[in-house]
Amino acid sequence: MKKFGTMLLALVMVLGLAACGGGDKPSGSDLKTVEPGKLHMSTNAEFPPYEMTTDSGGFAGIDVEVAEAIAKKLGLELVVDDMGFDAALTAVQTGQSDIAMAGITVTDDRLEVMDFSDSYATGVQVVIVKSDSPAVQSLDDLASAAMIGTQKATTGYIYCSDTPENGGYGEDHVIAFDTGALAVMALVNGQVDAVVIDNEPAKAYVNENPGLEILDTEFAVEDYAIGFAKGNTALKDAVNAAMKELKDDGTFQGIVDKYITAE
Ligand code: ARG
What we know:
single chain, alpha/beta, 6-stranded mixed β-sheet, 3-stranded parallel β-sheet, 14 strands, globular, binds arginine
C-alpha cells in the first residue's frame, strides 16, 4: 500500500510537471486573471495613436495591438475596458483589470500604488499653442500663460499644477479636461493659452486642427509601461517575457510603424 502511494505521488508529480512545462511559452492557464481565459486591459481610448475607438465601435492603436499580441502569447483573449484615464489606473490597482495600458508614464508616485512592466516606449510632454498665439511662444512663456489645458490625472496635469518651487505653474493656472481632445478644443476656442500633452497625441491633434503648432522645446521626457496590481509578479513576468519576444521578432516595431511614421 505504501509503495502504491509513492507511485501515485510520483505519477501526480510527473503529470504536474508536464502541465507546467508545456513548451517555453507561459501558458494562460497558469495565470490567474480577472476572468479565466481573458486578459482584461483597462485603458482610456482617447489617446491616438496609442489607443482610440474606431468608427465601427472597436478599438485600435499601438497599445491595443501590442496587448492583443501579448494576450495571444499568454494563451488569453484580450478584452479592452474603456474608461476615464484615472479610472483605468485605479481599475488595475483594485483588481478589476489585469493590466492597465494607456500610454502610462512610470512615476514615483504611481510606483507606490502599482507595479510596472519594462518600459516599451518613450513619451515626451510637449506644449501645443495657437500658431498666432501672442501669449505663448516658448516654454518660458508658459509661466505667464493665463491658463494651461491638460487631461485629468495625466503627468501633464500633475507637472503643470505643481507649485512654482517644484517647476509647476500652480493649480490656478491649469484646467483638467476629461480628454486631451477636449483640452485641445478649449485651446482652439481660446479658453486656454496652451495644452501640455504627450507628443504623439499632440501630433494627431495638431494635424486635425489647422492653426495649432507644437513648441520646439520638450517639457518632460518619460517612459511608458504597462501597469499591474502591486505584487502581481506572475503576470508582470509573463508580460515582460512576451513583450521581449515581440520586440525580438519584430512584431512590436511592426505595430509601432503602422501608427507612427518616422520623421
Ligand atoms: N503619459 C501620460 C500619463 O501617464 C498621459 C497618458 C494618457 N493616456 C490616455 N490613454 N489618455 O499621465
